Amino acid sequence: MASHRRPKQQSRARVTVLTTAAAAAVVLSANAANAAPSEKLSKDEVKAKVDKLYEEAEQATEKLDGAKEKQQKLQKEISTIQDNVARGQADLNKLRDSLGSMATAQYRSGGIDPSVQLFLSSDPDDYLDKASTLDQLSSQQVEALKKIQDKQRELAQERAEATDKLKDLSATRTELAKQKSAVQSKLADAQKLLNTLTAKEKAALDAEQAQAASRASSRVDLGNTGSASSRAAAAFAAAQSVIGSPYVYGASGPSSFDCSGLTSWAYAQAGVTIPRTSEAQANAGTRIYSQSDLKVGDLVIFYGDYHHVGLYAGNGQVLHAPHTGAVVRYESISNMTFEFGVRI
How far apart are CA 262 and CA 331, in angstroms? Predict the structure, then answer.
């Protein structure tokens, strides 16, 4: 007997699924065909992107340096306050002990009411002397209480100040970690880009940078004629002595530097203390807005947010610590966005 069963419905569903999958495959194939193949960046394109990442890393580095400086300052202030509190507490304890001794002495000598003691005294003059002493003790006691109250208020204020500074320190440490992470992230991205270059391209890039530094150095030799001051000259000479030292973010010598680390170290060798960060160094002296007025040893501030600084080397050149992967070297001011000079 012939079967009159209907075809299974799932076969139709399976056809639908297969059709949909096939259509999707066609679409994907078309998209793949239309998509532009990923192209390898040229050496110059890599350099441009890496330079941008280095600049962003340096911005974060200066913030990192500022957070470090603030942390050190807060730690010193907190330590001083805590020492003051400890000494103040010792003084307070002494005042309380003194007040206790005074109260005991008064009780022993003044336990009888003065008016009664007057009648009982066989020597009125002796009583008057005692009454005077009692009044004096009472006055001293009041004075001691005032001193204790003042000391308690002083200690309370210092403890509150220490608490606030500890909170500030905690926030600063958080900022420190944030900026450190930002620097490391930018540097890692830059390294990834550099790793896409061939050995030949890397060698060519290094050669270009070496040639640029050599040209800048030769121009310095021709134009290095006048210093801003004897101390500026000494600072510049100190910076010259570390030419070739590597840039390391957060470093301030003597064997590695970041940009503001180099300038602050150099001036320290000349016996002059200037702020640690480029932003603070921008306000450390007299501003000079014309490049033609710059003299050797002047600070040179770059970019709108003042995140880079170097030392003027004469003839339109600057001596600075450029960025990670580079060393302390001469470079043309025109390679960066000049804002102004600062004469210390």
Answer: 15
- pLDDT recorded at residue 40: 80
Alpha carbon 241 to its chain centroid, in Å, reads: 26
User: Could you tell me the two tokens for 22?
Assistant: 């096939």
Predicted pLDDT of residue 217? 83
Q: Which residues are identified as catalytic? A: 259, 308, 320
Q: Is the peptide bond before 275 cis (omega within 30 degrees of 0)?
A: no
For 262, residues 6+ apart whose C-beta sits below 8 A from its C-beta are 239, 242, 252, 253, 310, 311, 320, 321, 328
| In contact, 168 and 74? CB cutoff 8 Å | yes
Tokens at residue 335, please? 């390679």
Q: In order along the chain (344 residues), what is the average pLDDT of each group of 10 residues? A: 47 41 41 48 89 92 92 92 88 75 56 42 50 53 73 87 92 91 93 92 88 83 70 96 95 95 98 96 96 95 96 95 93 95 97
DSSP 173-220: HHHHHHHHHHHHHHHHHHHHHHTTS-HHHHHHHHHHHHHHHHHHHHHH
Which of these, 260, 248, 246, lies nearest to 65 by C-alpha position?
260
CA angle, residues 43, 260, 316, in degrees to nearest 5: 65
pLDDT at 266: 98
The 3 state secondary structure assigned to 227-296 is ECCHHHHHHHHHHHCCCCCEECCCCECCCCECHHHHHHHHHHHCCCCCCCCHHHHCCCCEEECCHHHCCE
Q: What is the pLDDT of residue 152?
A: 83
